[in-house]
Amino acid sequence: MPMRAEPLRKKKKVDPKKDQAARDRLKKRIRRLEKASQELIPIEDFITPVRFLDKVRQRPQVELSFEESERRALLLKKWSFYKQQEHEMERNAIRSMLEAQQEALQELQLTSPELHAEAIKRDPSLFPFEREGPNYTPPVSNYQPPEGRYHDITKVYTQVEFKR
Questions:
Q1: Is the separation of the CB atoms in 42 and 157 below 8 Å?
Q2: DSSP class of residue 51?
Q3: CA nearest 106: which of 91, 116, 95?
Q4: Which of 79, 85, 116, 82 is nearest to 101 (CA)?
């Protein structure tokens, strides 16, 4: 019976000093990673530093000329009118679409009631929404609801300093 396996390779001779140095390097990296994981990272990134809260750093109030204040007021009125017109156009477009849809459904009702029934059937894959409401149970006559209590769950972060 012929054997087709390759002959076994010789094991490489490993220098014990090199092997021990590699292990030490690995242990050192692990210790460094463990130290780094102890530093807590605050969630609140947008805390304003105290040095920026100084009253001296506040900008002085700019006095606008009468013409400039009138120009800004007129610009604000024009912008409000533009947004109002935009909102009304959007509402009218939606209203006309809904009216067209209702008219099409009425025509479909007259031509084919089966298709109308299929058209008004709810499609669960279009807008997946599952709701489970309260079960019908009579109210408990002498039930006293618990008083609301405030439970502070704000996390406090402390910075741990390491000696290097």
A1: yes
A2: G
A3: 116
A4: 116
Q: Which residues in the chain land under pLDDT 70?
A: 1-3, 5, 36-45, 160-164
Neighbouring residues of 40: CB distance < 8 A, sequence distance ≥ 6: 157, 158, 159, 160
Name every residue whose Cβ is closer than 8 Å to that of residue 64 and which is 6 or more positions away in sequence.
Answer: 72
Give how far Cα 61 sits from Cα of 122, 137, 141, Å: 59, 63, 62
The CA–CA distances, whole Å, from 120 to 94, 103, 117 equal 19, 13, 5
Give the per-residue pLDDT at 15.
84
Radius of gyration of the chain (CA): 37
SS3 content of the chain, % helix, strand, coil (to 5): 50, 0, 50
- pLDDT of 67 reads 97
Q: What is the pLDDT of residue 163?
A: 60
92-135 per-position pLDDT tens digit: 999 999 999 999 999 999 999 999 999 999 888 887 777 777 77
Here the tokens at position 94 are 């939606």
Give the global pTM: 0.41
User: Locate tokens 């704000």: which residue?
Assistant: 154
Residues in the chain: 164
